[in-house]
Amino acid sequence: MTMPETLRPVTGREQVPASPEEILARAKAAAPLLRERSEEIERTRHLPKDVVELLRDTGVFRIGMPNEWGGPELTFAQQTEVIEALSYGDAAAGWCAMIGMDTWIYAGYLNEFVVKEMRANPDAITAGLIFPVGRADRVPGGYRVTGRWPFGSGVTHADWVVGGCVVHQDGEPEPGPGGAPMNWRLILARGEEFEKVDTWHTTGLAGSGSMDYQATDLFVPEERSFDFTQPQRSGPFTAPDAFLSNVPGVPLGVARAALDHVRELAAGRVERATGMPWSDSYRVQTTIGQAEMELSAARYAVYGTLHDLWDRLRSGVEPTPDQQVSSALARVNAFRTARSIVSRLSDLVGTASIYRTSPLDRWLRDLHTMCQHILAQEQIVQSAGAHLLGGTPQAPFPLGLKG
């Protein structure tokens, strides 16, 4: 089943998208426009300003905003559909949209005064690395923050930027809540308060602008800091892994784009040696059938586990170990399956796929790069197995475990 065709042109924020259906329709309408800009996005190594505004106009950056704040409050599955649709157009744009919509998830950990300030722009974009590679020294009223954070996807156009820090007091690391060896806290500041360091020269996802960013002795008020163990509201969006739920939309969208592309190529191709049409070639038929089978299974695993996760969090049901790890494993599988599919499609197309003029070249490089993300690594699989066996997960956080 191919991705639906463009439904309508993106009309801008003079008509604010207010429903999940409208946001998804705009995302699908934006996909061919993003596809036209893919070469430019990769070449410039960040999203051009008008592409950022195109994404804003879809409403993607408000998809995690709760109803009580005037937002559309898309479920995890609905969010993933939007990210999948945008990634069908361009992987880097989809990746930045997936990262940038975290504004309203982070807001669930902040006090009402900061949230009121943030609500002035429902389409605000957030970027940043949550892992504690920075340092936050306690001072009256807040922190003095110094650090350099890598992998700031979308930091070139972000309104808000977060950075994970180890809290220090009187020059010494501070213990964390519950006797944790360190106090891991996230700080939130305006994008212009950080210096961007152009380090993003990569094989794939070049257009995501995932460069380093840094600050020296930046004052951050206490109310603009938080940690994931102390939400200020309840509901699915304050689950520890809520901001990871829509991540698999990116590889799923890219794999779908590649499959549709090769199916279109097949309509006019013949086997060079025999003159047999590709549509009648056993080799081609089997490759396409296998790819469709694997993508369908991976996609249904993602959406099935996301529906289950949302329902459980809504109802407050304590998950079994199998339920706890299911969405994380489906996420890893989506990345790996997508890369495998596009690799085999490239083999099928042959030498034509190695040129920069072929989108298969870019899709394969994009998937290879995103599969190096920590969320697609073996450590997640180990942690899932450890949790199922009652052992010690090396990476509990991506499983939604608090410790």
From TrEMBL:
Indicate the transmembrane segments per the record: none
Q: Name one GO molecular function term.
A: acyl-CoA dehydrogenase activity
Keywords tagged on the record: Oxidoreductase
Q: Which PROSITE patterns is this protein grouped with?
A: HISTONE_H2A
A Gene Ontology cellular component where this protein is annotated is: cytoplasm
One GO biological process this protein is involved in is: fatty acid beta-oxidation using acyl-CoA dehydrogenase
Q: Which family does it belong to?
A: Belongs to the HpaH/HsaA monooxygenase family.
**Name of the protein this chain belongs to:** Hydroxylase
